Amino acid sequence: MTVTVFQNVRVIDPETGNDEVGSLTIEGGVITAHGAAAPKGAVVVDGGGLCLAPGIVDWGVKIGEPGERHRESFRSAGLAAAAGGVTTIIARPDTTPAIDTPETLEFVTRRAAEASPVRIRHMAALTKGRQGREMTEIGFLLDAGAIAFTDVFHVATETKALSRALTYARSLGALVIGHSQEPGLSAGAATTSGKFASLRGLPGVSPMAERMGLERDLALAEMTGVRYHADQITTARSLPALARAKEQGLDVTAGVSIHHLTLNEFDVGDYRTFFKLTPPLRSEDDRLAMVQAVADGLIDVIGSFHTPADEESKRLPFEEAASGAVGLETLLPAALRLYHAGALDLAGLFKALALNPANRLGLPQGRLSVGAPADLVLFDPDAPFVLDRFRLRSKSKNTPFDGARLEGKVLGTWVSGNCVFEAN
């Protein structure tokens, strides 16, 4: 059995908070030692003083199989993830058809295992067709490998049906993910309401719609006792409700997309559709509040919310264009903007990118402790580059960072100790 030793690396450990030069030994797909000398016959990787961290666990990735393989396949998503230091993808169920039956879940699980060089785990729909009316077979889906349950951006309007689904999920210990928006207010919105939206003549949604949706979901979580995760918190007005829920001891966590941490509503500029997202980009004050909430631990998870869209669906008037952006390959360099700005240290950043999502989902990844899976990323946090979207490995190229100056290059990615990406 091959022993691999990473020497002369900055070991970024989100569990202990350490960031110091050392070594790491892996064997048989797991981490076996820290700081040990390389045994005879070991493969030695000299990191040159660069950073070695646990592979990213990216929660909320859309892949186009089944139904939209032309936008993203398991193969292309896996290659993009490996190049971005993502070793575990948590895939969304908003496919065509939705992943709402054990048979569909088993199909995508098998396809992912065959095609992707990185790990892929699947969430399943909470309700049939993601329509918010009739719950799915949660128990059977758990048995088939569903890691969590969500209707993604389809916010249930039938609260009684939703409460029944949450109660049943609670009885099975299932994790439910909600999208915090008041559906009536947010319907048809293309941007956040305010002076900028008015000047551009775009239909907007008030930031209060997020708070209203979150307050409802948190009340249901309190009533049912379900394990609940808010997928994207993007406005400062939502934070007090989230803080109260945590202080009350509710089993609640929250995430935020990397785009809402690094971009704001003015980036839309003159109707740039690559910046049309769900939820829409917010004010600079909201962005700064989200960054602080991650630093404080109030928001637990940072994700790419990778949403591939083809050119035809983006090259439309802003109101009509598809929402979403790809992010598997840009998540780490974009997140390193927070590190370079002094908002987060590297250990804190990887806590939100890797450790917290793994812990919340009950996965052994996201850490560097002895016995943990050898899912690793070696990167240079200071390497500058200008992003060219046509060099992305995703089938779709809809990134808001096209032409942006970024810092941070992935040099190598390992899954179970096997190198799945090596930079040229």
TrEMBL record:
Task: Please provide, alphabetically and separated by semicolons, the GO molecular function terms listed in this UniProt record.
Answer: allantoinase activity; dihydroorotase activity; metal ion binding
- The Dihydroorotase catalytic domain covers 52-235
Residue spans making up a coiled coil are none
Q: Which GO terms describe its biological process?
A: purine nucleobase catabolic process; pyrimidine nucleotide biosynthetic process
Write down the EC number: 3.5.2.3
Supply the Pfam families for this chain: Amidohydro_3, DHOase
Q: What class of enzyme is it?
A: hydrolase
Amidohydrolase domain residues are 343-421
Q: Name one GO cellular component term.
A: cytoplasm
What's this protein's name? Dihydroorotase
